[in-house]
Amino acid sequence: MTYIVPIIDTNWKELSSIKLDATVFTQEKVNSSLIHEYVLMQLSNARQSNASTKTRGEVSYSGKKLKKQKGGGARVGDKGSPIRKHGGVAFGPSSEINWSKTMTKKQRKLALLGAFVTKLENKEVVIVDGYSAAHISTKGAYSLLKTLAYSEDHNLIMSGNYDEILSKSFRNIEDTKYVSIDYMNVVDLLRSNHIMIFGKDGLDKIITRFSKAAEEETE
Question: What is the rounded distance in angstroms from the CA atom of residue 135 to the CA atom of residue 133?
Answer without folding.
Answer: 5
